[in-house]
Amino acid sequence: LTKEQTAATAMLDIEHEDNIPIPDTDSNVYTRGTIGQHNVVIACLPEDIIGTTAATNVVTHMLRTFTGIRFALIVGIGGGIPNLPDYDVCLGDIVVSGPQGTFPGVRAPFHS
Q1: Local structure of residue 106 (DSSP, 8 states)
Q2: Which Gene3D superfamilies has this protein been placed in (predicted)?
Q3: Where are the alpha helices (H) located in 21-77, listed in sequence order?
Q4: pLDDT tens digits, residue range 20-54?
Q5: pTM, whole model, 2 decimals?
Q6: How far apart are CA 106 and CA 84, in angstroms?
Q7: Which among 8, 40, 43 is positioned nearest to 29, based on CA atoms?
C-alpha cells in the first residue's frame, strides 16, 4: 500500500523531522507533518500484509504512541465494494464508509 502512503505524504504542506522516540513495542514507520494548521501522522500497513486485522494493529500502535490524536482517517483500496443499484462505484472513486448494522456503509461516491 505504498502508493496510498506516497499520495498521503504528498498532501503534507510540511514534513517534520523524525525526532520523536517511538517505543520498541511499536513496529509502525511514521511520517509526520502538517496540513494547514493540523498536525498529521501517516503510517502504512506492513509490506505484503493487508486486511482489517493489520489495519487495527497499525491504528492501535499509532494511538498508543501519539496520545493526542483526535481523528483517524483510514485510506485504502476497497476491493470488496458491492455493486449497488443506486451507486455506480468505479475504480478511482472516493467512497466514504460508515457501516451501520447490516448496511455496508457505502455513501454516494465522488467520481474522480
Answers
A1: B
A2: Nucleoside phosphorylase domain
A3: 52-65
A4: 889 999 999 899 999 999 999 999 888 888 777 88
A5: 0.69
A6: 9
A7: 43
Cell of 43: 503510517
pLDDT tens digits, residue range 62-110?
A: 999 999 998 887 776 666 666 667 767 776 777 666 777 776 665 554 4
* Cα gap 59→71, rounded to integer Å: 11
**Within 10 A of 16 (CB to CB), how many other CB atoms are there?**
15
SS3 label, residue 47: coil
Q: Quote the radius of gyration of the chain (alpha carbons, Å).
A: 16
What is the rounded distance in angstroms from the CA atom of residue 77 to the CA atom of residue 28?
Answer: 20
For the record, the C-alpha cell of 5 comes out as: 502512503
Q: Are 98 and 87 in contact (CB under 8 A)?
A: no
Place of cell 449497488: 84
CA-angle at 16, arms to 11 and 18, nearest 5°: 125
The residue count of the chain comes to 112
